[in-house]
Amino acid sequence: MQEDGKPAFGLLFDIDGVIVRGKKVLPSALESFKRLVDSEGRFRIPTVFVTNAGNALRHEKAEQLSCWLEIEVNEEQVVMAHSPLRMFQQYHNKHVLISGQGPIVEIAKNLGFKKIVTIDQMRNAFPLLDAVDHKRRISVPCTFEQYFPRIEAIVLFGEPVRWETSLQLLIDTLMTDGMLAHPVSHLVYPHIPLLACNMDLQWMAEAWMPRFGHGAFLLCLENLYKKVTGHNLIYTALVGKPSEITYHHAHHMVVAQAKNIGIDHCVKRLYAIGDNIYTDVFGANLYDCYLSRRNIQGSKRIVNKERNIEELLGSDSSEWDHVAESCSSILVQTGVYSEGVQSGMLDHSPRDFLPVEEKLRAPKFTVENVSNAIDLIFHKEGFH
Questions:
Q1: Would you give the end-to-end CA distance of the chain in angstroms?
Q2: Is the Cα torsion angle 361, 15, 238, 246 positive or negative in sign?
Q3: What is d(CA 97, CA 61) in angstroms, rounded to the nearest whole number?
Q4: What letter does residue 136 receive in the DSSP assignment?
Q5: What are the backbone angles phi and psi of residue 372, rounded to the nearest 5°?
Q6: What is the pTM of this model?
Q7: Is 24 helix (H, G, I), strand (E, B) or coil?
Q8: CA separation for the pair 18, 281 (Å, rounded)
Q9: Using an 8 Å Cβ cutoff, are 277 and 15 in contact?
Q10: Which of 39, 42, 47, 349 is most exposed, with minimal Cβ within 10 Å?
Q11: In 82-223, beta strands by DSSP E
């Protein structure tokens, strides 16, 4: 607590498995979040919601959260899995193939992408390529195939509905260097740029067991590409949790919100509350390590799997991120994590983040639910 009575910490909340299960609000959530706002319903602690969901627009998710929690949440408090793609401006003018469900065309346009084609549009242009479902198979080619423009990059927003169609057309696109209208004489490798959001292998909905997430789809894509070509699939960028760039982006939003609610001093500590040790906890711990390195070394660089991504973060990033001391991971047991079921021997973390030091998947604190998480934070911070 600062002398002015205002908090020197910020909160990062996961949504699925922490606040809701599917569309059902968890019993501990409703009253808990009322403690974060003042008598007029305005947040008194800088709070950001960080989800790996990629099938909705930010303002839609903010409206949904407002309805669930009965407090006003605005879109500037929401980080979707795809939110950091706004910074990847070098791909915004390329002809991109997108995959996922929901309003993905509108999402892509809002992020800055201008030339977009969906899997369904590609299937209509190349009907002979989709052959698994016999009832949907078409034997007559499209007369406009040869005029279809080259795909220059692929953006994967989230798990699609028809996995077999998406897997087939994505691998076709990668193997043909984005030119599906032309026969393949040789494999072009490295393949065209591939950007993927949301690496969750599993997530928690209404079912009593976790369900497959986009990470499961990516696992299929990786292994099929390897099996067919003999080469490893290359991700140009992986965004969403546990990527440090997502936490860096969320941190920036916490600082911006702190200013908006009249907090003039620095946000010294972040608390990240989640239900998944392979994304929420792992990502928060990775970002905590990054903050520690910066505080010790005074470094002006961010490294994600040996790749410098500082140029993506904006010119003003160095003015605020060096002042944070820590990002503490808090695991709640209302979602994916189940004590006794998950083992440290399992590698559920995304492929490009392996191998993982076991300590990075160990939460700083473990509590029963989000109410206990807020109790813990308030006690540590001396905040009421």
A1: 10
A2: negative
A3: 24
A4: T
A5: -65, -30
A6: 0.88
A7: strand
A8: 13
A9: no
A10: 39
A11: 95-99, 115-118, 153-156, 194-197, 202-203, 211-212
Contact, 201 vs 242, CB < 8 A?
Answer: no
Query: How many CB atoms sit inside 10 A of residue 308's CB?
Result: 10
Residues 58, 73 contacting (CB under 8 angstroms) = no
Instruction: Tell me the C-alpha distance between 347 and 354, whole Å.
Output: 8
Amino acid letter at 217?
A: F
Whether 192 and 173 have beta carbons less than 8 Å apart is answered as yes
E strands, 124-246, in order: 153-156, 194-197, 202-203, 211-212, 237-239
Task: Tally the C-alpha atoms within 13 A of residue 155's C-alpha that lie toward its C-beta.
Answer: 33
Per-residue pLDDT of the chain (384 residues; tens, 9 = 90+): 554 778 999 999 999 999 999 889 999 899 999 999 999 999 999 999 999 988 889 999 999 999 999 999 999 999 999 999 999 999 999 999 999 999 999 999 999 999 999 999 999 899 889 988 888 877 776 666 667 899 999 999 999 999 999 999 999 999 999 999 887 888 999 999 999 999 999 988 889 898 999 999 999 999 999 999 999 999 999 999 999 999 999 999 999 999 999 998 899 999 999 999 999 999 999 999 999 887 776 545 444 443 444 555 544 444 454 468 999 999 999 998 865 555 555 678 888 887 778 899 999 999 999 999 999 999 999 998
Which residues, other chains included, contact 75 with Cβ-Cβ below 8 Å and sequence gap of 6+? 58, 59, 61, 62
Q: Which residue has the tokens 């479902």?
A: 133
Characterize 122-143 residue by residue with b for buried, 16 or more Cβ atoms within 10 angstroms of its Cβ, and e for exposed.
bbebbbebbeeeeeeeeeeebe
Cα dihedral angle (180, 194, 235, 305), rounded to 10 degrees?
150
